[in-house]
Amino acid sequence: MPGICSFLTALGRVHLTWTAEGICGLRFQEGLPEHEDKSAPIWVLEAMRRLMSHLAGHRQELGDIPLDLSDLTPFQRRVAEVLRGTRPGETISYGEVALLAGRPGAARAVGQAVKANPILILVPCHRVVAANGPGGWSAFGTPERKARLLEIERITAD
After folding, report:
1. In this predicted structure, what is the pLDDT of residue 103?
2. b (16+ CB within 10 A) / e for 30-61
3. Residue 5: count of CB within 10 angstroms of its CB
4. How many domains does the chain fold into?
5. Longest Cα pair distance anywhere in the chain, in angstroms?
6. The whole model's pTM is what?
7. What's the CATH number where 104 sits?
C-alpha cells in the first residue's frame, strides 16, 4: 500500500503518494485536509520540501526525485521519459512528444497519456502545449495554475 500525504503549497494543496520505488502520484487536490504520514521516508520529506520551494518560485532540481511508473502503460512511460527530458521553462507540442516517443503522428495518444499523468510537475506535462495555444490544463485545476508553473520555470530558467 502506498504512503500518502497532502500538504499546502503556494499553488494549492498537493496530494502525494509513494511506494518504496518512488513517487507514484502527485496531484492538486482542493478540499482535502492536511495529512502527514509519520512514516514517510527521508527522501519523501526532502521531495516535499523541494516541491514546496519550487512552487513558491524558488527553482529546485526535481528530475532526480525517484518515481514509480509501474502502473503506467509502456507508451505512457515513454511519454513520461520524454517529458522528464524537457528543460524547465521550455514547452513542447503534442506532436513533438509523439515523435520523440517513437510514435510520429500519435499526438492524440500523447494527449491521452498527458491527461492520465498521475505525477504532475515531476512528469512535467505542464510543458506540453497545443500547436494553437496552451493545451490541456484540467489536471492542474485551472489554466492559471498551468500558466503559473510555466512562469515559475521561465523566470528561474538558466
Report:
1. 96
2. eeeeeeebeebeeebeebbebbbebbeeebbe
3. 18
4. 2
5. 46
6. 0.89
7. 1.10.10.10
On whether residue 68 sits in a domain, the answer given is no
Residues 20 and 78 in one domain: no
SS3 25: strand
**Bridge-partner residues for 14, per DSSP?**
7, 28
94 and 44 housed in the same domain: no
Residues designated catalytic: 125
**Helix crossing, 74-84 with 107-115: angle to 10°?**
90
Residue 65 placed within a domain: no
**Which secondary-structure segment (H or E) carries 96?**
helix 94-100
Average pLDDT of adjacent 10-residue blocks, the chain of 158 residues = 89 94 92 69 95 91 95 97 92 95 96 94 91 69 83 66
What integer pLDDT is reported at residue 54 of this predicted model?
Answer: 93
Distance CA 8, CA 28 (A): 10
Phi, psi (degrees; rounded to nearest 5) at 127: -85, -10
Domain assignment present for residue 129? The answer is yes
Give me 62's grid cell.
526535481
